[in-house]
Amino acid sequence: MSEIAVVAISVAKPGYEERLREALEGIVGPTRKEQGALQYDLHRDMQEPRRFVFFERWTSQEALAAHAKSAHITAYKQAVADWVEHAEIRVVSKIL
């Protein structure tokens, strides 16, 4: 399968912005070391600071699936469950 991209959005509940930011920053390093990770960049929405956005690129769907099952992502999801108001993950393929 060809390279895929992901846009992952997490919106913090009011008052949890900095906790969520720290937790998200904590998964960047381990994820960038994963096999198949080509890009894993964290951004914060300038208009809505509770919204965090990852732009990701993976070598394959299999690499992304392994990432989703990794220990650091599993621990992250458990840690932030009460801090996140909304989360959305979009897997996309490049057209041009």
UniProtKB/TrEMBL annotation:
Gene3D superfamilies for this protein: 3.30.70.100
Keyword terms of this UniProt record: Monooxygenase, Oxidoreductase
UniProt key word Cytoplasm: no
GO terms of molecular function: monooxygenase activity
Residue span(s) of domain ABM: 4-93
Protein name as catalogued: Antibiotic biosynthesis monooxygenase
Source organism per UniProt: Paraburkholderia graminis (strain ATCC 700544 / DSM 17151 / LMG 18924 / NCIMB 13744 / C4D1M)
